[in-house]
Amino acid sequence: MILLLSITAGFLFAAGIYMILRRSLVKILIGLLLLSYAVNLLLFNSAALIPARPPLVAAGSSLPPAVYADPVPQALILTAIVISFGLTAFAVVLIRQVYLITGKDDLNEMRSTDLPREEYELPSEEEELEEPL
Fold first, then answer.
1. So what's the pLDDT on residue 40?
2. What is the pTM (predicted TM-score) of this model?
3. In 3D, which of 33, 23, 133, 37 has the Cα closest to residue 91?
């Protein structure tokens, strides 16, 4: 099982890096998502899977049982999920705004977007509300 999870994490890392190297902003976002999934799987794989053994100290004892599930990787995975959700939400909004301003998704076509030109004007709030998402 550990070997299968390791190979899957490696495949997700490779696919994520491949997608990040593409020119489309949406493909870069998909690459970031794949990398975050790979990190979550790597963190999950770093802890031994021990079912039904919570890290609780029994009454009258001063130490937990000899074999117990480690809660630290679980906490790290939850933290990584929250961080990747925030990064994804920010990237989606950023990509949408770039597409609204430039009308392009290709990074090679967006070489001079530092100063907005007349053709790259922002839509008014009324136009933006009328357009479906």
1. 92
2. 0.73
3. 33
